[in-house]
Write a structure and sequence with these properties.
- This protein has 12 helices and 12 strands.
- It is of the alpha/beta class and about 290 residues long.
- Strand 7, helix 8 and strand 8 form a beta-alpha-beta unit.
- Helix 3 runs parallel beside helix 4.
Length: about 290
Protein backbone atom coordinates (compact mmCIF):
# COMPACT_ATOMS: atom_id res chain seq x y z
CA UNK A 1 0.00 0.00 0.00
CA UNK A 2 1.46 3.38 -1.03
CA UNK A 3 1.25 6.42 1.19
CA UNK A 4 0.12 9.47 -0.73
CA UNK A 5 0.14 12.66 1.38
CA UNK A 6 -1.93 14.38 -1.31
CA UNK A 7 -4.90 12.10 -0.65
CA UNK A 8 -7.84 13.78 1.06
CA UNK A 9 -8.25 10.80 3.38
CA UNK A 10 -5.14 9.16 4.92
CA UNK A 11 -4.92 5.44 4.27
CA UNK A 12 -6.23 3.46 7.23
CA UNK A 13 -3.02 2.07 8.67
CA UNK A 14 -0.98 5.28 8.40
CA UNK A 15 -1.46 7.63 11.32
CA UNK A 16 -0.07 11.15 11.21
CA UNK A 17 1.22 12.12 14.64
CA UNK A 18 -0.47 15.23 15.98
CA UNK A 19 -0.59 14.60 19.73
CA UNK A 20 2.41 13.28 21.67
CA UNK A 21 0.19 12.51 24.66
CA UNK A 22 -1.66 9.78 22.74
CA UNK A 23 -1.32 6.60 24.87
CA UNK A 24 -0.76 4.63 21.67
CA UNK A 25 2.70 6.24 21.50
CA UNK A 26 3.70 5.30 25.06
CA UNK A 27 6.09 2.58 23.91
CA UNK A 28 8.13 5.08 21.91
CA UNK A 29 7.90 8.09 24.19
CA UNK A 30 7.20 7.32 27.83
CA UNK A 31 7.67 3.71 28.91
CA UNK A 32 10.92 2.79 30.67
CA UNK A 33 12.65 -0.46 29.85
CA UNK A 34 11.19 -2.13 32.94
CA UNK A 35 7.70 -0.91 32.02
CA UNK A 36 8.14 -2.23 28.49
CA UNK A 37 9.08 -5.64 29.84
CA UNK A 38 6.00 -5.80 32.05
CA UNK A 39 3.45 -3.86 29.98
CA UNK A 40 0.59 -4.74 32.35
CA UNK A 41 1.32 -8.48 32.27
CA UNK A 42 4.65 -10.30 31.63
CA UNK A 43 3.25 -12.12 28.60
CA UNK A 44 2.36 -8.74 27.11
CA UNK A 45 5.88 -7.30 27.41
CA UNK A 46 7.31 -5.37 24.48
CA UNK A 47 10.63 -4.17 23.14
CA UNK A 48 11.70 -1.60 20.57
CA UNK A 49 13.57 -2.65 17.42
CA UNK A 50 15.50 0.03 15.51
CA UNK A 51 16.31 0.24 11.80
CA UNK A 52 14.85 -1.72 8.89
CA UNK A 53 17.56 -4.40 9.18
CA UNK A 54 16.91 -5.16 12.86
CA UNK A 55 13.13 -5.02 12.42
CA UNK A 56 13.38 -7.51 9.57
CA UNK A 57 15.51 -9.84 11.70
CA UNK A 58 12.98 -9.58 14.55
CA UNK A 59 10.07 -10.43 12.28
CA UNK A 60 12.07 -13.28 10.73
CA UNK A 61 12.74 -14.63 14.23
CA UNK A 62 8.99 -14.85 14.81
CA UNK A 63 8.43 -11.71 16.90
CA UNK A 64 5.06 -10.04 16.49
CA UNK A 65 5.17 -6.37 15.38
CA UNK A 66 2.56 -4.26 17.15
CA UNK A 67 3.20 -0.89 15.51
CA UNK A 68 5.77 1.04 13.49
CA UNK A 69 7.09 4.58 13.78
CA UNK A 70 8.79 6.07 10.74
CA UNK A 71 9.74 9.27 9.02
CA UNK A 72 7.15 10.14 6.42
CA UNK A 73 9.70 10.40 3.60
CA UNK A 74 10.85 6.79 4.16
CA UNK A 75 7.45 5.15 3.74
CA UNK A 76 7.97 4.57 0.04
CA UNK A 77 11.76 4.16 0.42
CA UNK A 78 13.80 2.25 3.02
CA UNK A 79 10.80 1.57 5.27
CA UNK A 80 8.66 0.11 2.51
CA UNK A 81 9.88 -3.49 2.87
CA UNK A 82 9.56 -3.68 6.67
CA UNK A 83 6.11 -2.09 6.51
CA UNK A 84 5.07 -4.83 4.08
CA UNK A 85 6.59 -7.57 6.26
CA UNK A 86 4.95 -6.17 9.39
CA UNK A 87 1.60 -5.89 7.63
CA UNK A 88 1.90 -9.51 6.50
CA UNK A 89 2.64 -10.63 10.05
CA UNK A 90 0.03 -8.41 11.72
CA UNK A 91 -2.51 -7.09 9.21
CA UNK A 92 -3.79 -3.62 9.99
CA UNK A 93 -1.09 -2.67 12.49
CA UNK A 94 -0.71 1.10 12.94
CA UNK A 95 2.14 2.90 11.21
CA UNK A 96 2.78 6.23 12.96
CA UNK A 97 4.52 8.86 10.89
CA UNK A 98 5.79 12.45 11.00
CA UNK A 99 8.69 14.54 9.78
CA UNK A 100 12.22 13.69 10.98
CA UNK A 101 12.68 16.69 13.29
CA UNK A 102 9.32 16.14 14.95
CA UNK A 103 10.06 12.47 15.62
CA UNK A 104 13.46 13.25 17.16
CA UNK A 105 11.83 15.84 19.40
CA UNK A 106 9.16 13.33 20.39
CA UNK A 107 11.43 10.39 21.16
CA UNK A 108 14.32 12.41 22.56
CA UNK A 109 16.97 10.49 20.63
CA UNK A 110 18.24 10.27 17.02
CA UNK A 111 16.28 7.77 14.96
CA UNK A 112 18.53 5.05 13.54
CA UNK A 113 17.69 4.91 9.83
CA UNK A 114 14.37 6.54 10.59
CA UNK A 115 12.30 3.48 11.54
CA UNK A 116 11.30 1.99 14.92
CA UNK A 117 9.04 -0.95 15.67
CA UNK A 118 7.14 -1.89 18.81
CA UNK A 119 7.48 -5.68 19.06
CA UNK A 120 6.03 -8.31 21.38
CA UNK A 121 8.74 -9.88 23.55
CA UNK A 122 9.32 -13.58 22.84
CA UNK A 123 8.21 -16.02 25.52
CA UNK A 124 10.89 -16.82 28.15
CA UNK A 125 12.67 -20.15 27.71
CA UNK A 126 13.74 -22.65 30.35
CA UNK A 127 17.44 -23.33 30.86
CA UNK A 128 17.01 -27.06 30.25
CA UNK A 129 15.36 -26.36 26.92
CA UNK A 130 18.06 -23.88 25.89
CA UNK A 131 20.88 -26.30 26.73
CA UNK A 132 19.38 -29.42 25.21
CA UNK A 133 21.79 -30.52 22.47
CA UNK A 134 24.12 -27.56 23.04
CA UNK A 135 27.89 -28.08 23.09
CA UNK A 136 29.01 -24.48 23.65
CA UNK A 137 27.17 -21.88 25.72
CA UNK A 138 28.07 -18.45 27.10
CA UNK A 139 27.13 -17.51 30.66
CA UNK A 140 27.14 -13.81 31.59
CA UNK A 141 27.41 -12.80 35.25
CA UNK A 142 26.31 -9.25 36.04
CA UNK A 143 27.16 -7.70 32.66
CA UNK A 144 25.25 -4.44 32.93
CA UNK A 145 26.30 -2.33 29.95
CA UNK A 146 23.81 -2.58 27.08
CA UNK A 147 26.52 -2.01 24.46
CA UNK A 148 28.55 -4.92 25.86
CA UNK A 149 25.48 -7.15 25.97
CA UNK A 150 24.70 -6.37 22.33
CA UNK A 151 28.30 -6.94 21.22
CA UNK A 152 28.56 -10.24 23.14
CA UNK A 153 25.38 -11.53 21.52
CA UNK A 154 26.66 -10.58 18.08
CA UNK A 155 29.89 -12.49 18.76
CA UNK A 156 27.95 -15.44 20.17
CA UNK A 157 25.86 -15.60 17.00
CA UNK A 158 28.80 -15.29 14.66
CA UNK A 159 31.27 -17.51 16.51
CA UNK A 160 29.35 -20.64 17.30
CA UNK A 161 27.69 -20.31 20.71
CA UNK A 162 24.53 -22.43 20.91
CA UNK A 163 22.92 -20.34 23.66
CA UNK A 164 23.52 -17.48 26.09
CA UNK A 165 22.52 -17.67 29.76
CA UNK A 166 22.34 -14.55 31.94
CA UNK A 167 22.31 -14.01 35.68
CA UNK A 168 19.48 -11.83 37.08
CA UNK A 169 21.72 -8.76 37.44
CA UNK A 170 22.58 -8.59 33.73
CA UNK A 171 21.24 -5.88 31.46
CA UNK A 172 18.09 -6.85 29.56
CA UNK A 173 19.18 -8.18 26.14
CA UNK A 174 16.03 -6.68 24.61
CA UNK A 175 16.65 -3.13 25.77
CA UNK A 176 16.74 -0.74 22.84
CA UNK A 177 20.52 -0.23 22.64
CA UNK A 178 21.42 -3.90 23.13
CA UNK A 179 19.07 -4.93 20.32
CA UNK A 180 20.57 -2.29 18.02
CA UNK A 181 24.23 -3.04 18.83
CA UNK A 182 23.61 -6.77 18.37
CA UNK A 183 22.09 -6.09 14.93
CA UNK A 184 19.13 -8.19 16.05
CA UNK A 185 21.15 -11.29 16.94
CA UNK A 186 19.62 -11.22 20.45
CA UNK A 187 16.59 -12.58 18.59
CA UNK A 188 18.56 -15.30 16.81
CA UNK A 189 20.70 -16.79 19.59
CA UNK A 190 18.59 -18.70 22.15
CA UNK A 191 18.91 -17.09 25.60
CA UNK A 192 17.40 -17.06 29.03
CA UNK A 193 18.06 -16.48 32.73
CA UNK A 194 19.87 -19.19 34.66
CA UNK A 195 18.48 -18.30 38.09
CA UNK A 196 15.53 -16.31 39.46
CA UNK A 197 17.59 -14.26 41.96
CA UNK A 198 21.24 -13.26 42.46
CA UNK A 199 21.30 -15.40 45.60
CA UNK A 200 20.07 -18.45 43.71
CA UNK A 201 22.75 -17.95 41.08
CA UNK A 202 25.51 -17.59 43.67
CA UNK A 203 24.35 -20.69 45.54
CA UNK A 204 23.34 -23.05 42.75
CA UNK A 205 24.31 -21.59 39.35
CA UNK A 206 27.50 -23.55 38.66
CA UNK A 207 25.88 -26.71 40.04
CA UNK A 208 23.07 -26.27 37.50
CA UNK A 209 25.60 -26.08 34.67
CA UNK A 210 27.39 -29.19 35.92
CA UNK A 211 24.10 -31.06 36.29
CA UNK A 212 23.31 -30.18 32.67
CA UNK A 213 26.55 -31.85 31.62
CA UNK A 214 28.79 -28.83 31.03
CA UNK A 215 32.36 -28.31 32.07
CA UNK A 216 32.76 -24.71 33.21
CA UNK A 217 35.45 -22.22 32.17
CA UNK A 218 35.74 -18.95 34.12
CA UNK A 219 37.40 -16.18 32.10
CA UNK A 220 39.51 -14.52 34.80
CA UNK A 221 43.03 -13.46 35.76
CA UNK A 222 44.43 -15.89 38.28
CA UNK A 223 47.76 -17.43 39.23
CA UNK A 224 46.41 -20.91 38.51
CA UNK A 225 44.66 -20.05 35.23
CA UNK A 226 45.27 -22.00 32.03
CA UNK A 227 45.83 -20.45 28.63
CA UNK A 228 42.90 -20.13 26.26
CA UNK A 229 44.58 -22.62 23.89
CA UNK A 230 44.94 -25.31 26.58
CA UNK A 231 44.36 -28.71 24.84
CA UNK A 232 42.21 -30.21 27.60
CA UNK A 233 40.00 -27.13 27.71
CA UNK A 234 39.58 -27.06 23.95
CA UNK A 235 38.83 -30.76 23.89
CA UNK A 236 35.80 -30.58 26.21
CA UNK A 237 32.66 -32.00 24.60
CA UNK A 238 30.32 -29.56 26.36
CA UNK A 239 31.62 -26.28 27.67
CA UNK A 240 30.08 -23.26 29.41
CA UNK A 241 32.20 -20.10 29.03
CA UNK A 242 31.62 -17.67 31.92
CA UNK A 243 32.24 -13.93 31.58
CA UNK A 244 31.86 -11.41 34.39
CA UNK A 245 30.78 -7.88 35.01
CA UNK A 246 32.65 -4.87 33.70
CA UNK A 247 35.55 -3.92 35.96
CA UNK A 248 35.36 -6.58 38.69
CA UNK A 249 34.83 -9.61 36.47
CA UNK A 250 33.47 -12.87 37.83
CA UNK A 251 32.89 -13.27 41.56
CA UNK A 252 35.48 -15.23 43.54
CA UNK A 253 32.79 -17.76 44.44
CA UNK A 254 31.96 -18.40 40.80
CA UNK A 255 35.62 -18.77 39.84
CA UNK A 256 36.25 -21.21 42.70
CA UNK A 257 33.39 -23.47 41.59
CA UNK A 258 34.41 -23.64 37.91
CA UNK A 259 36.43 -26.49 36.40
CA UNK A 260 38.86 -24.13 34.65
CA UNK A 261 40.08 -20.59 35.20
CA UNK A 262 41.10 -19.29 31.79
CA UNK A 263 43.23 -16.36 30.65
CA UNK A 264 43.78 -14.87 27.22
CA UNK A 265 47.54 -14.60 26.56
CA UNK A 266 48.37 -10.88 26.33
CA UNK A 267 51.35 -8.79 25.23
CA UNK A 268 52.88 -5.32 25.82
CA UNK A 269 51.95 -5.34 29.49
CA UNK A 270 48.18 -5.35 28.82
CA UNK A 271 46.46 -7.47 31.47
CA UNK A 272 42.97 -7.88 30.03
CA UNK A 273 40.41 -6.94 27.41
CA UNK A 274 36.97 -5.38 27.63
CA UNK A 275 34.40 -8.11 28.30
CA UNK A 276 32.89 -7.79 24.81
CA UNK A 277 36.29 -8.10 23.12
CA UNK A 278 37.27 -10.96 25.43
CA UNK A 279 34.07 -12.80 24.58
CA UNK A 280 34.85 -12.70 20.86
CA UNK A 281 38.36 -14.08 21.40
CA UNK A 282 37.11 -16.82 23.74
CA UNK A 283 34.19 -17.83 21.54
CA UNK A 284 36.44 -18.15 18.50
CA UNK A 285 39.12 -20.23 20.22
CA UNK A 286 36.73 -22.46 22.18
CA UNK A 287 34.11 -22.99 19.48
CA UNK A 288 33.25 -26.60 18.70
CA UNK A 289 35.83 -27.70 16.15
Amino acid sequence: MIFDPACEEPMPRYIEITDFSDPALDAYVRLTGAQQRRRLEPEKGIFIAESPTVIEVAIGAGCMPLSLLTERRLINESAERVIALAEEKNPGLPVYTAEHDLLEKMTGFPLTRGVLAEMRRPAPREVEDLCRGASRIAVLEGVVDSTNIGAIFRSAAGLGMDAVLLTPTCCDPLCRRAVRVSMGTVLQVPWGYIAPTPEAWAEHGIDILHDLGFSTAAMALSDDSVSLDDPALNGEERLAILLGTEGDGLSHRTIAKCDYTVRIPMQHGVDSLNVAAASAVAFWQLRKK
